[in-house]
Amino acid sequence: MAKTAEQFDAVVVGSGPGGAAAAWALAEAGARVLVLEAGPRYDPFADYRLERPDWEARRFPEKVPTRGRQSFAPLQELDPAWRDLRSWNLHRGPMVAGPRRAAWAYHHVVGVGGSTLHFAAEAHRLHPDAMRMRDRFGVAADWPLTYAELEPFYETAERIVGVAGPAISGPGADARPRRRPLPLPAHPLSHASRHLARGFAALGMGWQANTQAALSRDYDGRPACNYCAGCGRGCPRTDKGSADVTFVAKAEDSGRCVLRPGTRVLRLEAGLGDRVAQLLVAGPDGRVARLAARSVVLACGAVETPRLLLLSAGNRAPHGLGNESGQVGRNFMETLFWTSSALHPDNLGSHRGLPSDIISWHHNAPDAVPGTVGGCRFSAGVAEADLVGPMAYAQRVVGGWGRAHHRRMAETFGRVLTVGAIGESLPNDGTYVDLDPRAHDDLGAPKARIHARLDGGDLVRLRFMARTARDVLAAAGCDDPFEEYGAYDAFSATHVFGTCRMGDDPRDSVVDASGRSHRWENLYIADASVFPSSGGGESPSLTIEALAIRTGTILAERLRKGEI
Ligand SMILES: Cc1cc2nc3c(=O)[nH]c(=O)nc-3n(C[C@H](O)[C@H](O)[C@H](O)COP(=O)(O)OP(=O)(O)OC[C@H]3O[C@@H](n4cnc5c(N)ncnc54)[C@H](O)[C@@H]3O)c2cc1C
Ligand code: SF4
């Protein structure tokens, strides 16, 4: 591999929403950027074949398998006192066997665009109070910047991605003030979600059309959504605002950004002074080379970014690069989630529509859930539960066999309603990422090992989420649930945060408010690992992008002034 990183002002590692948005902001501000991405590019038209007869059998077409990329320490024993939170299906029985919490997966994609390639396109701003959890509620940590400081960068992210949503935010509208309207009008609610709206309303829970990174009109050269519900398998129309078709494409269009897919960064190496000098990189042909770097922006996600820093330990950084505080890998926050599904008496056509098109923020504020600190939200979840095709109905919704099974299939198809809830995840001492001394990747480097423990407050919140999800389904006119699953007995995280916390104090954080390492002056982090708190169920990508744009903009200015 040519040693060309000297030609660039910044090397960005990872091209998920964090890396892509940082690269775009740097290029936009005139900096020359090299993006190194471990995974391949995906071609939406060739790779996401939702028109094939076997579309349902094919999940997201992973080109780099992700199962087993990380390892798990044994998870906690399950306490019978919380047995109402066990995962189950009417026809298949318990989903988790045994007395311990199961490690289902850290769901992610290795590829240009990162996990936005299969995300559900929810595009949320954080509740401002969720950024002040220590100050206001004595838990987690405060963000070293305010919602108002982040607001202009949210606006930019919404414009680049093409976010659609309501002009006002419904009940709680004041919670997330905005200076300008969203670029696109809200998507119409699906027929099924209008039934869910009745359930929310019957319980006095405010609801609204969700804000989504999916186009409600043709926008910026991309066509409007066709409501196929296929987001989790990859959007074949490019209307979904994944990072590859938005920030990466625009960064490349600038002429100042070069992307190298299939290029894995193995470690960072310190140089003179408190500077990162070079990166050890494995290219697509497997050859390993060193690239010099003027500045480095890490954006490998909240599990792989701390791993890379820990793998970069050396004489000058014996506990890992940027780990002077011992906080790299600590404060990990997973996804606290719950999903209940039930049949409605009417045919709702619920297998189609934009995933999560309706949301209730009613319990999203940090003090909105009784008996615990930290909020949650509720949304439509049929597509995210993957209850959109006949295979899922045959296996999970309809029991029996033969003619009775066929008849039941015809009767029930399109009648499932699902409520998905996501809640605040608070950091604790038992939840962190470290290097596994026993499990190694193909090049012999220790894998990231995930330790996860749910505390009592998390379980109180989770029980509230489960009970409320059931209540919403009942109020919407559904039968009793036929399937429920959640974080109590299964680690199955889609949103992960916190392992390189940002903060003002170098003793308890890894980077400052600009995303820069407290010690290493040309090292920045621009992904979900910098979040000091998770929010009350907000989907994180828009916040990741806003933060990364801010980090990229500040870094570009420092580069321009010759400070780095
Ligand atoms: C099924 C699912 C649905 C979701 N739905 C939503 C949603 O609706 N809305 C929302 O906001 N969020 C959603 N999320 C979460 C969202 O996708 C993630 O929070 C987000 O993508 C994280 O961004 P990131 O930049 O921190 O990391 P990632 O997206 O994980 O990107 C990291 C990138 O770095 C690369 N990389 C890692 N290590 C290296 C290395 N050593 N060298 C080079 N490259 C490397 C990876 O290949 C990857 O491309 C969903 C996630 C899943 C799994
Ligand atoms: S529902 Fe819309 S955004 Fe999702 S895959 Fe289909 S066309 Fe794309």
What would you note in describing this structure?
The protein is of the alpha/beta class. It has one domain (5-43, 83-172, 190-560): 3-Layer(bba) Sandwich (FAD/NAD(P)-binding domain). 23% of the residues lie in helices and 18% in strands. It is built from 11 helices and 21 strands. The chain has helices at residues 17-28, 44-47, 133-137, 147-161, 191-202, 244-253, 301-311, 390-397, 402-412, 456-475, 541-560; strands spanning 10-13, 33-36, 71-72, 88-89, 93-94, 102-106, 208-209, 257-260, 264-270, 276-282, 288-292, 296-298, 336-343, 358-360, 376-380, 416-423, 432-440, 446-451, 481-486, 490-493, 523-525. The strands form 5 sheets. Strands 5-4-19-13-16-15-14-7 form an 8-stranded antiparallel sheet, with helices on one face. Strands 8-2-1-12-21 form a 5-stranded parallel sheet, covered by helices on one side. A 3-stranded mixed sheet has the order 3-18-17. Strand 9 (264-270) and strand 10 form a beta hairpin. Helix 1 (17-28) runs parallel beside helix 6. The longest helix has 20 residues, at 456-475. It is globular. It binds flavin-adenine dinucleotide (FAD) and iron/sulfur cluster. Flavin-adenine dinucleotide binds next to helix 1, strand 9, helix 7 and helix 11.
Outline of this structure?
The protein is an alpha/beta fold and 564 residues long. The chain has helices at 17-28, 44-47, 133-137, 147-161, 191-202, 244-253, 301-311, 390-397, 402-412, 456-475, 541-560; strands at 10-13, 33-36, 71-72, 88-89, 93-94, 102-106, 208-209, 257-260, 264-270, 276-282, 288-292, 296-298, 336-343, 358-360, 376-380, 416-423, 432-440, 446-451, 481-486, 490-493, 523-525.
